[in-house]
Write a structure and sequence with these properties.
This protein has about 240 residues and is α/β, with parallel strands linked by helices. It has 9 helices and 10 strands. The N and C termini lie far apart (about 55 Å). The mean pLDDT is about 95.
Length: about 240
């Protein structure tokens, strides 16, 4: 019997952004899947309902891929796929496997010869890059920077140097409740002419995306506490 297909199902970045996020193909796909791998079962069920799921929730099998169940060598999420059933992989927000632990699931699926199909949906990283005005042909996503202030400051200088030397956009994130200290460190560390894009609350009603030089940002610093944000540095 041939294996099923692993579908990578993007989810909205913001609670009120469902209409902006779900394509007709995605809606059709979820209505032909009864098994999912998700970081949070409650969140997954709510999102599927918002997307237009017609299958009764009681008929769904949702595997918990929370932080205590991420060892794919010991937890078997693949029995359904091996039996020929299609399975959906969902992140907590945005695209599965992009800055997301679901990458391990996708890697194992490839190793097992399981077909992987990514569906179109929102990625905060790419949306921020699109809106930044920075180099979209050469860019690097670095994830989280160090928490230690000295190490973080050193890393910001390194990214600034990479941006200038390689004509390359440098992208990174921070835990939302540490956004304000991050901005403070960037403005204190980077060169006044370096350009910084802050993309916050992407796709939500409070979306905020602006690109300015460090010197311009220093005149008025945005309030970003507990707001999901992407930071992009470029130097030209």
């Amino acid at each position: 019997m041939p294996f099923g297909t692993l579908y990578l199902i993007p989810v909205p970045l913001a609670e009120e952004a469902a209409a902006k996020s779900f394509t007709p193909y995605l809606i059709n796909t979820i209505n032909n899947i009864k098994e999912y791998i998700a970081e949070n079962e409650k969140t997954a069920r709510r999102i599927l309902k918002e997307a237009g799921l017609k299958t009764p929730q009681s008929e769904l099998l949702i595997h918990d891929y929370g932080k205590h169940n991420r060892d794919v060598s010991t937890v078997d999420f693949f029995k359904g796929l091996q039996a020929g059933n299609n399975v959906g992989l969902m992140s907590e927000a945005g695209c599965p496997a992009i800055a997301d632990p679901g990458a391990d699931i996708v890697e194992k699926a490839h190793r097992m010869g399981i077909k992987v199909v990514p569906l179109v949906g929102p990625s905060s990283i790419l949306l921020a890059l699109m809106a930044s005005g920075f180099n979209g042909q050469s860019f690097t996503f670095h994830g989280y920077l160090p928490i230690d202030k000295a190490d973080r400051s050193k890393r910001i200088r390194e990214l600034e140097s990479l941006a200038e030397r390689n004509d390359q956009t440098q992208i990174f994130i921070e835990t939302p409740f540490r956004n304000n200290p991050m901005v403070e460190e960037i403005l204190k560390t980077a060169h006044p002419k370096t350009r910084l894009c802050i993309a916050c609350d992407i796709t939500s009603a409070t979306e905020f995306i602006q690109t300015k030089t460090i010197a311009e940002w220093q005149k008025k610093v945005p309030e970003l506490h507990k707001r999901p944000a992407i930071f992009l540095i470029f130097h030209r």
